[in-house]
Design brief:
This protein is mainly beta and 426 residues long. It is built from one helix and 36 strands. Strand 6 and strand 7 form a beta hairpin.
């Protein structure tokens, strides 16, 4: 970094309720010690991808250092912070119970194949006839709601498919993936009321992929979610299978919202994971540049239209300096002092899941935003808010929880030079 930051956090050291900062000093050089550490609140357990390359559950209030990389191997840790989410799919790890089979046998807790937790709780679906071979769970869909449906799958000798439909396949959507190669295969829709907005596949290592589909509902109906073994084809939205096709499955999840959040296990009822809220206030005001300063953030954006790093006067959303994303995927540097004083954005949308380095420097009538070493936009008019005394990492006062993986965050009490900003974000 070009100079000593006044506040630096590279997620590494923590305990229940605390995330320790590496540096916390005032502009006068006073070392803050523990008063510069971030408070961590989450009232439920939650899961993360650990350094061994496995999913594991962590206790309530424990910060989640997540080591996930797109290649499915453990990489550098990043702080995982998510909004509240609820898994509405029941018996997410046991497809022999709430799930009704058709033309398929379900072999539970298959030995010799570890699940994403490193245990033996995965199930094997094997088609007993050609045609549609699936397990089905009845589900209540609400019109106007966006659902994200996800499930872990591992190749047997066939493909893997997921379906959301109205109970008679008069309307619905389906997606098939080749989980031998980790590639999308085919998707389809029929009728009205189900709009497939996106589909995705993520490598979780050890042959496991997390497949997901985002669907907007245009009707309120009691329908179904399906997990299918497949030969890679579909008729309308009925996923087809050859007799004997099989696939390993684990961890089904249905949640409202536009992304598949971290896995939430269920049994006989829906389960909620509370939001992660990470912030520090009070003495840390000396770490914040009041008349000029710079905020730096490095991480991956997983959801648009959210604040992901903010300085504020108390919990105010109208007296603050912050970084946020727009619904169109632009990163913005924003200054509010009652009204908007500065709003400058990146030149193009960022890619969800990709890691970036961003810096926003502020001073009265002098604002600039840098991304990955490149100047994005400037603003030469605007005043600053007063009494900035709180730092919200990855959320704004707990009301606009984002969905990010943060590798580093820092504050400077000066407006760094453009050359320093370019070096900092390269």
């Amino acid at each position: 970094m070009p100079a000593s930051p006044s506040l630096l956090i590279v997620p590494a050291r923590f305990k229940t309720g605390k995330l320790y900062t590496q540096i916390a000093t005032t502009s006068a050089g006073l070392v803050l010690g523990s008063s510069g550490d971030f408070n961590v609140t989450r009232a439920t357990t939650a899961t993360r991808f650990n350094s061994a390359g496995l999913i594991e559950s962590v206790a309530s209030g424990v910060p989640r250092l997540d080591y996930y990389t797109s290649g499915g191997t453990a990489g550098c840790p990043a702080l995982l912070v998510e909004p509240s989410a609820q898994n509405l799919a029941l018996q997410s790890q046991d497809f022999t119970t709430t799930w009704s089979p058709t033309n398929v046998t379900v072999s539970a807790n298959v030995t010799g194949t570890t699940d994403p937790f490193g245990t033996n709780l995965a199930d094997l679906l094997t088609a007993t006839a050609s045609g549609s071979a699936r397990v089905v769970q009845t589900f209540s869909f609400v019109s106007g709601t966006t659902y994200t449906y996800s499930c872990f799958a591992k190749a047997g000798n066939g493909f893997f498919g997921m379906t959301m439909e109205n109970g008679g396949v008069a309307s619905g959507v389906a997606v098939i993936w080749n989980v031998s190669t980790g590639a999308f295969s085919v998707s389809g829709s029929v009728g009205s009321g189900y709009t497939l907005q996106a589909h995705n596949i993520e490598n979780y290592g050890n042959g496991w992929y997390r497949c997901s589909m985002r669907v907007l509902l245009g009707l309120t109906v009691t329908g179904n979610i399906r997990v299918n073994t497949s030969n890679g084809t579909m008729s309308s939205v009925v996923v087809q299978s050859d007799n004997g096709n099989n696939v390993y499955v684990f961890g089904a999840q249905v949640e409202t919202g536009s992304v598949a959040t971290s896995y939430i296990p269920t049994t006989t009822a829906a389960v909620t994971r509370n939001a992660d809220v990470i912030s520090v206030s009070g003495a840390v005001s000396g770490c914040i540049g009041q008349t000029e300063g710079t905020i730096y953030w490095e991480g991956a954006i997983n959801r648009y239209d959210r604040v992901f790093f903010a300085l504020a006067s108390g919990s105010s959303t109208t007296q603050c300096v912050r970084l946020q994303t727009t619904g169109a995927g632009l990163i913005q540097g924003v200054v509010l002092s009652g009204t908007a004083q500065c709003i400058i954005g990146t030149l193009a949308a960022v890619t969800l899941g990709q890691f970036y380095k961003v810096a926003f420097a502020y001073k009265e009538n002098d604002f600039v935003l840098y991304l990955n070493g490149v100047q994005q936009n400037t603003d030469t008019s605007g005043t600053l808010p007063t009494n900035l005394n709180s730092v919200y990492l990855l959320n704004s006062n707990g009301t606009e929880i984002t969905d990010q993986r943060c590798r580093a965050a820092a504050l400077y009490t000066t407006r760094l030079t453009n050359a320093e900003l370019a070096a900092l974000t390269t």
